[in-house]
Amino acid sequence: MYRRRQVENGNARGTRCITSQRYVGGNGTTSIKRLANGEISRYKARLCAKGFNQTEGVDYTETYAPTTRYDTIRVLLAVAARNNLDIVQFDIKTAFLHGELKEEILMEPPPGITTNTNIVCKLNKSLYGLKQAPRCWNNKFTMFLQDNGFKQCEADKCVYVRNQDDDLMPLAMMASSWKKTKSN
């Protein structure tokens, strides 16, 4: 299940590992989601990297990803209240799985996946558990917002503003959760 989903999403592919190459461990979790009556609604699996094995300067160089300052959130809420704006909060599911990796990261397959000897996963995109995953996600989403007409605020790098047809739309990022205000 892990392998099929990760290959479909373009997150990883199998590659041969040379014994001198470094790689991080892999782990997977599975769960069964049930309806209120106990009937199975779906099966859920998540592939995680054991990022605690990563070495700074070798496996990653930057981990910093900004988050909105509380002062900024208070100002945005005050402006929204004063101008009778709608506030919308949304969460981006599987956010960390969309970040593009700059480093070459090799990961051993998680327990339960049988492969030939010396076969590891070469990660193309970030995974939960990697130290650089928040930064990769932040960079990816910043590019998406800029491509869609948002400008990054100089005072707080997690606030983006788009002004279209005299309709001002600020957007504030908190980890992978976003708050957006807009006029009716």
Automatic annotation (TrEMBL):
Domain Reverse transcriptase Ty1/copia-type residue range list: 39-166
Highest taxon of the lineage: Eukaryota
Pfam family, one: RVT_2
InterPro entries, per database record: DNA/RNA_pol_sf, RVT_2
Keywords for the protein's UniProt record, in alphabetical order: Nucleotidyltransferase, RNA-directed DNA polymerase, Transferase
Alphabetized PANTHER family for the sequence: AMIDOHYDROLASE 2 FAMILY PROTEIN (PTHR43383:SF2), NODULIN 6 (PTHR43383)
UniProt protein name: Reverse transcriptase (RNA-dependent DNA polymerase)
Annotated organism of origin: Popillia japonica (Japanese beetle)
